[in-house]
Amino acid sequence: MAFQNKEVVYTILFKTAAETLRTIAADAKHLGAEIGLLAVLHTWGQNLHHHPHVHCVVPGGGPSLDGARWVGCRPGFFLPIRVLSRLFRWLFLAALQGAFEAGELSFFGDLTGLAEPDAFAAKLRALRQIEWVVYAKPPFGGPAQVLAYLSRYTHRVAISNSRITEISEQSVTFRWKDYRHHGKTKLMTLDADEFIRRFLQHTLPDGFHRIRHYGFLANGHRAAKITLCRKLLAVPSPGPIITANVVAACAPAVSPLDTCPCCGGRMITLAVTSGPRPLRRPTWYDTS
């Protein structure tokens, strides 16, 4: 269903995951704070099958709902997994039902029958009977580890070149981790056309944003909210950020001769060589 309705279902996945985290965090029984989060969409599993899910990086606390103090989570515990799972399931299926009633979902092939309201309702009933997985990992070690994680995960594609061990005209062999066997690394060989099919499943709709920010990290008020967080945590503001515009303004003027004619970038002089010496015309002397 998600594969045939990528933009609609992926958007529901983003919004309901963020709403789940923010709702439970705002509940005084659990945290009682306004949190922020960065969410990254991944659509693949280790074997390249279609497996849409979001990774969320969430600070371990946030301003109280009245903005008067900072509320941090308990050491080693953020939010209850079972409560998150139940609310996520309810919100997601409610949003999916709303998309169906609004005529935003399309069904093809084996899923054609889901276009009938009774069949779709039966499908949702079945999905409500199973457990939905929400997983919370331990916190990072510090800012450096957060940046390292983001650099690895925010712009990943379905498979990296380093995992591919062999390519031929007929097949592709790659490494994958089998999490059902404790993350054991195995090799999988697929016919070339099957490998391409699996890889192309993860192409996103044009203009779709796979990295999104919510809560006090949302783009509309991030600067003001982070300023408040620093104030509540008694953390000094960072120094001025040097932007590309500042660098360009301070850089010395570049001569047109030092500019690349193709990309417009600045060329660096590595060496200067003299051109070939001009041929000297022979000198003739009249000895007559």
Overview of the molecule:
With 288 residues, the chain is α+β, with helices and mostly antiparallel strands. The chain folds into 2 domains: 181 residues, no CATH class; 42 residues, no CATH class. It has 7 helices and 8 strands. A 3-stranded antiparallel beta sheet has the order 2-1-8, with helices on one face. A 3-stranded antiparallel beta sheet has the order 5-6-7. It has a two-stranded antiparallel sheet with strand order 3-4. A hairpin with a 5-residue loop joins strand 6 and strand 7. The longest helix has 21 residues. The chain is globular, with a radius of gyration of 28 Å.
Defining key terms:
three-stranded antiparallel sheet, 17% strand, globular, 2 domains, 8 strands, alpha+beta
Contiguous uncertain segments of 5+ residues: none
Could you estimate the helical fraction of the residues in percent? 25-40%
Rg calculated over all Cα atoms: 28 Å
Q: If you average the pLDDT, what whole number results?
A: 88
Share of residues in strands:
15-25%
Q: Going across the major beta sheet, what is the strand order? A: 2-1-8
Biggest sheet details: 3 strands, antiparallel
> What's the structural domain tally?
2
> Structural class, judged by helices and strands?
alpha+beta
Q: Give me the strand/helix succession.
A: HEEEEHHHEEEHEHH
Q: Estimate the global geometry from the Cα principal axes.
A: globular
Count up the helices: 7
Our measurement of the CA-to-CA distance between the termini, rounded to an integer number of angstroms, reads 103 Å
Number of strands: 8
